[in-house]
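Input/output pair, single chain:
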Amino acid sequence: MGAAKLHHYVPQFYLRRFANEKGDFWAWDKINDKLFRTTPKSVGAESDFYKLHEFADLGRDPLTIEKQFADLESQVSLITDQWLRWLGELSRGDRIEIPRPNREIISLYVALQIFRTADAKDIICTIERLAPNGKLSDEDRRLLQAVYLWELDLAKPSGKRIGNATEKGSSMLRLSDRDKTRIHTQWLWDLDFIHTVAKRIEESIWIFGRNLTGCPFFTSDNPVAFETSDNRRWVKVGVLAEGTYAVFPLSPQIVMYCHDGHDSVWRKVAKYNDCLSPVDFNVPMVEHENAGQVFNAGRFVISPVNDFKFAREFAQTIGTDTYAPQ
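Output:
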């Protein structure tokens, strides 16, 4: 058997954008409240995370899905590197050119990033274990995927339980790594569903925010966050729920919003589709988006600077009514 290979569920090309001139960044472990300096190679990854043992048994390439992700990431890296150069130079309200094939590639990448992480793997395995006889019908699986919740109280953070986990839920921890990867891959290769999510992203109103405050955008081990158009901040929201929109920091200076184009609130800003936001970001606005990363993180929050005071303060409010709607 070959040596274990470190597989990144948050790509290295993406994490490198949050590194400083020395090539490293700071990570805050929100579970253990620890800070450490590290590199893009060392976080957002696990050994043999995508290895398909069944493929190895059949004499096929067990790294098939890992290589598929690598191919997609190479395309996304080129496209978004160009975006970042443009967005750093444009005036507020200016549009960038996004050809349809590029829009499809980025939409697929964002959709897969939602479901490819360690937390997603644990949650997906828990959903499967909760099914009668350990099996879900295709209809039930699609329904659960459509209302997928980041804060499902059975399997977050990775490998640990939170909330009032049931005996069935905790049985997820008895799955072998081989079984977990098999179940996870089944979801990632459910092309009908993944393309449904990707289509939702593709048809969204894409607006890019630029941060010149000196307070960087954070990212995390679950970098695609979600919010709702009715100001229900930091609540459980489904990926495909009406009014839900994705927030994805592309760098410490640029954030990408994918607003639901069918939602009446966001149709009003459709004229800014593919544009740099006309709004100047201030520090509270940056912290609002950083709060989304703190909330969404399974464990690690990442920043090019060693300043997590806000992250620690916000983390203490999760599960309270501090940010509940009035």
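The CA atoms of residues 142 and 193 lie 7 Å apart. Residues 149-172, 232-236 have pLDDT under 50 and may be disordered.
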